[in-house]
């Protein structure tokens, strides 16, 4: 089985210094996740390159689709796939259930769940020699292909056509989708060039390990670069008509934004980022301060750039919200020359409107999908119902900030992780410069190449960092810093007493089925230093569950041998198959922190952030984090967090996350 230890860096672990990555995107097959984009203009269908760093989740004969092009799921629909799985790397184009027009697969297999693999597929069908038309590389090494069927010369592939492009899913049976489970980062797609791995990576001169290198070339028409970083440039905002900052009306800060009701508006999306993509059917809040210069029959404050998708309107005696064509009306009769704080918030399908912090009207039921749109302020999308008045402190959030009455903010709003648009007004009179102060854009699908070829994320959680389903990770193939490196996961190669054991969600989740006794371990082991991890119990029957540490050779449940230690579900501790009193019992929903100090030889457990005291002393050797189901009745499941996403509780001082940088 594969393990990292702190005296050896194995696999594509990367090297500190130079070009370091900051984040990756976890795709959880259980959630049916994918990113999609449909090109509006065809590019070069004969010549292109796809490069990505991949860390596998589920191991086995599973279709890990990292790139596909197809118009839908139906028999006879042409499609193109790049698969990466334990049985090899594949690229092929076919008509579903009809014929394969060309295909290539590597002889080599790829089965290491602890390693990052760099995959490059370069296609150039203009080449006279057939074997030069497809090149496949893993970690900088060109792969030997297994009986390839090369495309004919000058063949037009589906890639760079105006067919839907996907990252993370494909369909090969004409009736359902297969989804990738694992991690992706540093995804480069180049339209019009067949490149080599040296354009994207290089061998570290000290370790001999293949590592990422910044791509500095051009991308072509449909090229894109996805680094899955939250550090996305803010939205560009363009003012039209006489829209300007006005110091004569100052609510918060030194000015507010004035619209004269005749051709004035703000375009909040001029760099082609669709700010509503990260909301979809989920929670959101839009809020702003407003002052009317006149109260007309209809005035549009904030609206979408397409018909009836996302709008907030004032109509006689009512505030109206339109989401995906559905209208929601809340009773409200404003006056001129008075500042009001408006907020509309959706929480778990419940839509509420607030004026000055007080809910108006009744709570509405709303699950409308508002993906694929940007915003305008001051008019309707078709230039009707233009607003005459002032706006200030405009904020859009991908969370439900208000679910009950609240005190309206009276000071400048500060951006946080849930802020996806924020516009202040605190500048000189007459200024027409408007700035988005959110600091982030649409999240996981944003193209960083400069082309604006953004992808729409689906079923991916990039907003709730406290959730076990949060999908923006600090797990990367470089030794970036103590918080960012190649992180431990559960190891699906562990041979447990009873099988099968189900691994999921990028190997951060493990489940022991009914009537099974079994265990698993982390992919990283340590023999010195202080280490912290959190294990959340996601399912439990009875008390027969154990969380603890084991040596690589334990081959048993933690605590069942002299060199392994565990915290039993009933609150007892266990070592050498002997139970003794220790701390509180734990069950489904509880988070157990593990603080292992191998310098002092101690092991301490925490339940929901509260220390249960030192459980064991005198510990030495190499240890892995381990969990078990110790019962042959019922089920038991665990979610692991080794630091690749935010911890639920603050680790004790001096303890490190379990990644390769800290080794």
Summarize model confidence as the mean pLDDT.
87
Give the percentage of residues in beta strands.
35-45%
Q: Biggest sheet, open or closed, and with what strands and sense?
A: 8 strands, antiparallel
Please state the second-level CATH architecture of the largest domain. Answer: Sandwich
Q: How many runs of DSSP E, i.e. beta strands?
A: 48
First-residue to last-residue Cα separation:
19 Å
* Structural class by SSE content: mainly beta
Count of discrete structural domains:
3
Uncertain stretches: 6-16
The number of distinct helices, counting runs of at least 4 residues, comes to 0
Quick take:
The chain has 663 residues and is mainly beta. The protein contains no helices and 48 strands. Helix content is 0%, strand content 39%.
Explained architecture:
The strands form eight sheets. Strands 2, 4, 9, 10, 11, 15, 18 and 35 form an eight-stranded antiparallel β-sheet that branches. Strands 20, 21, 23, 28, 29, 30, 32 and 33 form an eight-stranded antiparallel β-sheet that branches. The chain has three domains: 25-226, Jelly Rolls (Sandwich); 238-423, Jelly Rolls (Sandwich); 501-641, SPRY domain (Jelly Rolls, Sandwich), CATH 2.60.120.920. It has no helices and 48 strands. With 663 residues, it is an all-beta fold. The radius of gyration is 27 Å and the shape is globular.
Which tags fit this structure?
mainly beta, Jelly Rolls, 3 domains, eight-stranded antiparallel sheet, 48 strands, globular
């Amino acid at each position: 089985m594969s393990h990292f230890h702190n005296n050896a860096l194995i696999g594509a672990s990367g090297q500190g210094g130079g070009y370091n990555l900051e984040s990756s995107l976890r795709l959880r097959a259980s959630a049916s996740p994918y990113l999609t984009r449909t090109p509006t203009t065809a590019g070069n269908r004969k010549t292109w390159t796809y490069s990505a760093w991949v860390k596998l989740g589920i191991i086995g004969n599973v279709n890990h689709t990292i790139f596909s092009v197809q118009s839908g799921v139906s028999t006879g629909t042409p499609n193109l796939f790049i698969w990466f799985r334990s049985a090899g790397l594949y690229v092929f184009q076919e008509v579903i259930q009809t014929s394969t027009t060309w295909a290539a697969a590597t002889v080599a297999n790829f089965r290491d769940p602890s390693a990052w693999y760099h995959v490059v597929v370069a296609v150039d069908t203009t080449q006279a020699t057939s074997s030069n038309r497809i090149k496949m590389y893993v970690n900088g090494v060109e792969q030997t292909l297994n009986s390839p069927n090369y495309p004919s010369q000058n063949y037009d592939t589906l890639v760079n056509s105006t067919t839907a492009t996907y990252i993370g899913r494909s369909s090969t049976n004409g009736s359902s989708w297969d989804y990738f489970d694992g991690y992706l980062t540093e995804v480069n797609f180049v339209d019009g060039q067949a490149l080599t791995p040296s354009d994207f990576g290089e061998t570290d001169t000290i370790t001999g390990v293949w590592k990422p290198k910044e791509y500095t070339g051009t991308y072509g028409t449909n090229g894109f670069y996805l680094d899955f970083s939250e550090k996305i440039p803010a939205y560009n905002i363009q003012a039209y008509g006489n829209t300007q900052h006005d110091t004569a009306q100052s609510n918060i800060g030194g000015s507010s934004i004035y619209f004269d009701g005749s051709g004035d508006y703000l375009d909040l999306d001029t760099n082609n980022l669709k700010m509503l993509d990260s909301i979809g059917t989920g929670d959101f809040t839009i809020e702003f301060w407003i002052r009317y210069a006149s109260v007309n029959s209809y005035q549009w404050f904030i609206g979408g750039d397409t018909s009836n998708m996302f709008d907030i309107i004032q109509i006689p005696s009512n505030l109206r919200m339109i989401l995906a064509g559905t209208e929601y009306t809340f009773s409200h009769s404003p006056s001129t020359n008075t500042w009001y704080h408006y907020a509309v918030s959706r929480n778990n399908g419940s839509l509420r409107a607030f004026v000055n912090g007080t809910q108006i009207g009744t709570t509405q039921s709303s699950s409308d999908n508002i993906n694929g749109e940007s915003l305008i302020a001051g008019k309707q999308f078709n230039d009707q119902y233009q607003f005459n008045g002032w706006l200030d402190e405009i904020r859009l959030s991908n969370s439900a900030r208000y679910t009950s009455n609240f005190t309206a903010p009276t000071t400048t709003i500060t951006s946080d992780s849930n802020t996806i648009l924020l516009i202040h007004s605190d500048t000189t009179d007459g200024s027409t410069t408007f700035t988005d102060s959110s600091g982030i854009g649409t999240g996981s699908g944003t193209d960083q190449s400069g082309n604006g070829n953004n992808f729409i994320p689906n079923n991916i959680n990039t907003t709730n960092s406290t959730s076990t389903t949060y999908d923006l990770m600090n797990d990367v193939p470089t030794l970036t810093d103590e918080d960012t490196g190649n992180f431990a996961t559960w190891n699906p190669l562990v041979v447990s007493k009873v099988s099968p054991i189900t691994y999921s969600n990028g190997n951060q989740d493990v489940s022991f089925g009914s009537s099974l006794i079994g265990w698993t371990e982390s992919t990283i082991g340590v023999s010195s230093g202080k280490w912290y991890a959190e294990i959340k119990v996601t399912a439990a029957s009875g008390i027969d569950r154990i969380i603890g540490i084991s040596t690589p050779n334990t081959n048993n449940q933690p605590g069942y041998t002299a060199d392994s230690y565990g915290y039993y579900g009933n609150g007892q501790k266990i070592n050498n198959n002997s139970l003794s009193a220790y701390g509180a019992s734990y069950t489904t929903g509880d988070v157990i922190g593990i603080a292992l100090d191998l310098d002092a030889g101690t092991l301490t457990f925490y339940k929901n952030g509260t220390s249960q005291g030192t459980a064991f002393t005198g510990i030495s050797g190499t240890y892995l984090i381990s969990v078990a189901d110790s019962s042959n009745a019922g089920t038991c499941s665990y979610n692991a967090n080794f630091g690749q996403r935010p911890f639920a509780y603050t680790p004790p001082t001096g303890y490190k996350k379990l990644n390769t940088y800290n080794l």
